[in-house]
Amino acid sequence: MSAGCPMPERLSPAISGPNSATPRRARFPSLHWRAVLQVGKRIYCIEGHWNYGSGKTEPSVEPILQMLAGLGHWPYARRDCATVEEMQYWIRQEWNLLDEGSVLYFATHGERGRIWLSDEYSVDVAGINANCTNCWVHFGGCNVLSVHEDSVRDLMSKSGATVVSGYAAEAGWADITRPPALALEMMLFSSAAASNVRVDDGRSRPRLKNIADKLISRFPDCGFRLHTKESMGL
Question: Among residues 101, 87, 94, which one has the least CA distance to residue 28?
Answer without folding.
Answer: 94
